[in-house]
Every structure is written in C-alpha cells, then in structure tokens.
Amino acid sequence: MYMLEFLFISFSCFMSGLYVYVYKYKHFLLMLLSLEMVVLSVYMVMMFYFSFFSYEYFMCMFFLSMAVCESVLGLSLLVLIIWSHGSDMVLIFDMLW
C-alpha cells in the first residue's frame, strides 16, 4: 500500500509539473520551477526504485548533480534575461533573435 501511494504522489507531481510547464509558459521563472518539480519527482521515483531493489545510490547522486547544474544554468539565464530586457516574460524572447 505504501508503494502505491508513493508512486501516485510522484506521478501526480510529475504530471502537475508537466502541465504547468506546457500550459503556463508566460514567465520564465515559472517554467524553471515546474521543470524542477518534474526533475524532483523523477528523482523520488529513482530513489524509491533503488531502495526497493537494494541497489547503490550512485546513479541518483549523479542525476541530482546534473539537476543542480541544470537549475544553476537556468537561473543564470534568467538573471541575464532580466538584466538585459527587464522582465522574464517569455513573449519578449522574439527580440533575442
């Protein structure tokens, strides 16, 4: 019963993060937060899978470090866009090209 509840919570976090990423794309910060929610739900499933089958957690730590690098790059891009354009609206990205 615990396993099904955990997988349901992880799946609902994944789907809600994916929904926000696809349908609420006005602000770049909101897109980054929803992407992090998706990544953390995948990380939760990986941790549960590796602990259930008694595997080592090396792959989880590698995945988490890549997720941190992705979020740092996203935040630095957000700071650069806000500094140059004054807003994080995705609709003004056509001015970048």
From TrEMBL:
Its main location: membrane. Pfam families: Oxidored_q2. One of its GO terms (molecular function) is NADH dehydrogenase (ubiquinone) activity. It catalyses: a ubiquinone + NADH + 5 H(+)(in) = a ubiquinol + NAD(+) + 4 H(+)(out). The chain crosses the membrane at residues 6-22, 29-50, 62-83. Belongs to the complex I subunit 4L family. This is NADH-ubiquinone oxidoreductase chain 4L.
